[in-house]
């Protein structure tokens, strides 16, 4: 449903039952799926691909050109999955030649004033609380929760089911299933509450705890701990996922927290 006070470029492809409120601007080369709602004063720029049943709240700017001096106008995308909610004044920049797209998964909640920069890849069922800030080229797994005012350094990765506490500065990679807090950012346990909510058994949670005890609480360095886990721990999908994350880490994983006496 087009409002007469909204501007929709003739080249945009909008599903029939999309609601577009007044003072929205939608550029050329935009696709919006069925059942989505676009709130007033939203700007959706070229290269946006918005899924079905999305809600985009007033003041959001989707698919603006990347804030990257190397960007030279190449045609890139911003992809938003189905059932994702983007709250007030969120900014999401489209990709560069690195990945050619910035992507947000399905069933995510991106709260007000968050920023997702160029070439980020965000998984499904993620929650970014207010003022979460992602620099460029960041990879976020599924079911990741960022508490308010979390800031993540470019090229970092965050594994599935991780929880990062409010006000955190993320300079290193955050492995799957963990809670991260303190300054500098450190391992403070596994995200057992989140895992229980998502159906992980008590036995599986204990297994993950045992893995991270070896990694963070037995005075091994990361290489030594990974070798022990590979040699001595039972092969499970979770063990292999954690080991693979460590092997793939480009910035190194965050350290454990050792309280000083």
Q: How do the strands and helices of this protein lay out in sequence?
A:
Blueprint: E1 7-8, E2 13-14, E3 19-20, E4 25-26, E5 31-32, E6 37-38, E7 43-44, E8 48-50, E9 55-56, E10 61-64, E11 77-80, E12 85-86, E13 91-93, E14 101-104, E15 109-110, E16 115-116, E17 121-122, E18 127-128, E19 133-134, E20 139-140, E21 145-146, E22 151-152, E23 157-158, E24 163-164, E25 169-170, E26 178-181, E27 186-190, H1 192-197, H2 202-216, H3 222-232, H4 237-248, E28 255-256
Parallel strand pairs: 1-4, 2-5, 3-6, 4-7, 5-8, 6-9, 7-10, 8-11, 9-12, 10-13, 11-14, 12-15, 13-16, 14-17, 15-18, 16-19, 17-20, 18-21, 19-22, 20-23, 21-24, 22-25, 24-26, 27-28
Antiparallel strand pairs: 26-27
Helix pairs in contact: 2-3, 3-4
Describe this structure in words.
- The chain is built from four helices and 28 strands.
- It has helices at 192-197, 202-216, 222-232, 237-248; strands at residues 7-8, 13-14, 19-20, 25-26, 31-32, 37-38, 43-44, 48-50, 55-56, 61-64, 77-80, 85-86, 91-93, 101-104, 109-110, 115-116, 121-122, 127-128, 133-134, 139-140, 145-146, 151-152, 157-158, 163-164, 169-170, 178-181, 186-190, 255-256.
- The mean pLDDT is 96.
Characteristic key phrases:
single chain; 261 residues; alpha/beta; UDP N-Acetylglucosamine Acyltransferase, domain 1; Udp N-acetylglucosamine O-acyltransferase, Domain 2; 2 domains; 11-stranded mixed β-sheet; 9-stranded parallel β-sheet; 4 helices; 28 strands; 17% helix
Q: Measured on Cα atoms, how large is the radius of gyration?
A: 20 Å
Mean pLDDT: 96
CA-CA gap between termini: 64 Å
Number of structural units classed as domains:
2
Percentage beta strand: 25-35%
CATH architecture designation of the largest domain? 3 Solenoid
Secondary structural class: alpha/beta
Number of strands: 28
Biggest β-sheet: strands ordered side by side in the sheet: 3-6-9-12-15-18-21-24-26-27-28
CATH class of the largest domain: Mainly Beta
Give the oligomer, counting copies of the same chain as homo and different chains as hetero: single chain
């Amino acid at each position: 449903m087009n409002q007469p006070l909204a501007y929709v470029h003739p080249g945009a492809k909008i599903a029939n039952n999309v609601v577009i409120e007044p003072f929205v601007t939608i550029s050329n080369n935009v696709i919006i799926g069925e059942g989505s709602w676009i709130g007033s004063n939203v700007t959706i720029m070229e290269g946006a691909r918005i899924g079905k049943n999305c809600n985009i709240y007033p003041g959001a700017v989707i698919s603006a050109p990347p804030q990257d001096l190397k960007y030279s106008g190449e045609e890139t995308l911003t992809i938003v999955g189905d059932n994702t909610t983007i709250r007030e004044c969120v900014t999401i920049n489209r990709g560069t030649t690195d990945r050619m797209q910035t992507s947000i998964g399905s069933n995510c909640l991106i709260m007000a004033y968050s920023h997702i920069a160029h070439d980020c890849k965000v998984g499904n069922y993620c929650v970014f609380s207010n003022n979460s800030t992602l620099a460029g080229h960041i990879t976020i797994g599924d079911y990741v929760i960022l508490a308010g005012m979390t800031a993540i350094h470019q090229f970092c990765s965050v594994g599935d089911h991780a929880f990062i506490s409010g006000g955190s500065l993320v300079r290193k990679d955050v492995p799957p299933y963990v809670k991260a807090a303190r300054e500098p950012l450190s391992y403070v346990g596994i995200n057992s509450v989140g895992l229980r909510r998502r159906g992980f058994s008590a036995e599986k949670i204990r297994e993950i705890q045992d893995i991270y005890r070896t990694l963070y609480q037995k005075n091994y360095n990361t290489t030594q701990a990974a070798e022990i886990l590979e040699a001595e721990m039972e092969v499970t999908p979770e063990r292999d996922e954690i080991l693979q994350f460590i092997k793939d880490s480009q910035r190194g994983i965050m350290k454990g927290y050792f309280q000083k006496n």
